[in-house]
Amino acid sequence: MQILRRGSEGEDVRKWQHFLLGQGVLASGVDGIFGPVIEKATKALQQQEQLESDGVVGPLTYAVAVKRGFDLGFVDPQGGTSGLDWPPRPIFAPLVSNREREEVFRKFQYARISPDRDDIRILGDWGGKNIVTITVPQLRGVAGAPTTGRIRVHKRRQEQVRALFAKWEEERVLHLIKTWEGSFVPRFVRGSSSTLSNHSWGTAFDLNARWNARGIVPALRGRRCEPQLILSPDPISFT
Predict the structure, then answer these.
(1) For the packed helices 59-67 and 36-48, what is the interaxial angle rounded to 10 degrees?
(2) What is the pTM of this model?
């Protein structure tokens, strides 16, 4: 890792921006450029950790960031089931661009609600034609989930969602779901002003997000990120 300061550019800066977003000290986009906004956010983080607030990402700032979960890219050559490289990635590729999602779930027009927010408003009748409300009884009692278990998803995903939670119930891993953070939420990907989130199509949902913030090493096995939940979806084509 290189020392980062105003004027730095590149992938290391992008990683740092994602981390700052996840820490709640940055609200701007991710562009790989260390400008005054990133410097200010870095200073805010340093002040929280009682470091010299010079806005430079050096060894001490990296050290406190690592304590908060910042990913330096460590790899465990011994492998195993308790490290960062497990479980293995799914055998299918996720949809990562607006165009890929539009080809499967249809395109919609939208308007940004505010320049300083990620939220959007979907225009026209796309929502009425494609978003449905389903009941997932397994969500009842989960922190953050509707008490009724009713959630909104894309109509082409509804049976997969039902099947997924039924599978988790069958495998007796529902107790590993600690929190629910939502499904259909029209917005941009955090830190972007052009790429829409999967949540905008109602094709994603978040679980246990508190322990898996943006830009940090995901919680390991037994620490609010359970591989049993990650591995189970594969036959149902979830990532």
Answers:
(1) 70
(2) 0.66
| Dihedrals phi, psi of 235, to nearest 5 degrees | -65, -15
Cα 20 to Cα 101: distance, rounded to the nearest angstrom: 27
User: pLDDT in tens for each of the 239 residues of the chain?
Assistant: 799 999 999 999 999 998 998 888 988 778 999 999 999 999 999 999 999 999 999 999 999 999 888 888 776 666 655 555 555 666 667 777 889 999 999 999 999 998 878 899 999 999 999 999 999 999 999 999 999 999 999 999 999 999 999 999 998 889 989 999 999 999 998 777 888 999 999 999 999 887 777 766 666 555 555 555 655 555 555 54
Residue 149 · residue 120 · CB < 8 Å = no
Q: For the chain, list the domains and their CATH numbers.
A: 11-67 (1.10.101), 98-236 (no CATH)
> Which three-class secondary structure state does DSSP give residue 199?
helix
Tally the C-alpha atoms within 13 A of residue 167's C-alpha that lie toward its C-beta: 17
